[in-house]
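This part of the workshop introduces the protein records we will be handling. The question running through the whole workshop is how a given chain folds. To make this concrete, we reproduce a full record directly below:
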Amino acid sequence: MSDKKHGHVHHSRSTRDILSAEKVLSTAGLKSGDNFLDAGCGDGFISITASSIVGDNGKVHAVDVYPESIEKVKEEISKKGIENMEAIVVDLTSKIPVDDDSIDLCVMANVLHGFVENDEVREVMAEISRVIKPDGVFAVVEFKKIEGPPGPPFKVRVNPQDVEDIVSRYGFEVAETAGVGKYHYLVKSFKKT
């Protein structure tokens, strides 16, 4: 990324080879007709899978701060003829371009640790809370707090209890924490009404 606004950089590495989008989305509970937000979509591998699950009556919003990532997602949308998905360059610490209380399910995969490291959790969680419907799902996927690779350095990884504490502080009730692969866990929570 040429813009140095954020100190933690993901270097455009995809986890599509070590994380199953199907496992993430089934654990999170994505359904046909859902309005889905992929917050920090990277190369869009979770969003692409979500587009087939939500179907013609659903919508996928793939957002990422890196223009290069969004361009790749747009190319894949065009190549595959996907009509229920949009890809937008968005800084999650500012306004996400979706309506209040409109998202059924939001997945944030391998992104929250960067906001923790940069002390930007408050801004991001305020936006996530704004866009998710009451009783909507917020699913955070992170690398297990073990020495890598793959994944970010050990010192910036967050453990499941930290993620549970963060989402609880911002109006979400933790439903479950589950492993979603060799290297990842998922914290599923619901927005309190």
